[in-house]
Amino acid sequence: MRTGIHVGVDVLVRLLAPPKRRFWITFDLLAGVLHRRDRGAGGLFVWRMMGTGQVSPDLELPMWIVYLAVPLGSSLMCYRFLQVAWRFRRTGELPSHRQAHVEGLEESRA
């Protein structure tokens, strides 16, 4: 999301007039927030796992720590969707990805 390389299908949205495009991009971002929020609600499952005492055979960690990755990652993704939606509503800009750009590396022109 931050760099504009998150999976998204925008072929039809690019064909719309700017006001409609703005609406549908905002709708898409907010739908992403709701979807990630619902995945983040899996914390209840993790809470229940804490009481089972199960241990991962490979990592030798409590299983609730292993399963914590889903709600934690989803919550972080929800936050990122909110950041992008806020910035888009204020400035009209979406993140873009430039394949040749490396952050922190200065371009030198000979």
Layout of strands and helices, then pairs:
Blueprint: H1 11-14, H2 18-40, H3 43-50, H4 63-67, H5 69-91
Largest sheet: none
Summarize the amount of helix as a percent range: 55-70%
Extract low-pLDDT stretches.
none
User: What spatial form do the alpha-carbon principal axes imply?
Assistant: extended
Radius of gyration: 19 Å
Helix/strand order: HHHHH
Quaternary state reads single chain
Give me the count of strands: 0
- From the N-terminal CA to the C-terminal CA, the straight-line distance is 33 Å
Number of separate helices: 5
Q: Report the structural category.
A: mainly alpha
Roughly what is the average pLDDT, rounded to an integer?
Answer: 80
Task: Give the strand content.
Answer: under 5%
List keywords for this structure.
about 110 residues
Describe this structure in words.
The mean pLDDT is 80. Helix 2 packs antiparallel against helix 5 (69-91). The longest helix has 23 residues, at 18-40. The radius of gyration is 19 Å and the shape is extended. The protein starts with 10 loop residues before the first helix and ends in a 19-residue tail after the last helix. The protein is built from five helices and no strands. It has helices spanning 11-14, 18-40, 43-50, 63-67, 69-91. With 110 residues, it is mostly helical.
Give a short overview.
This protein has 110 residues and is mostly helical. The chain contains five helices and no strands.
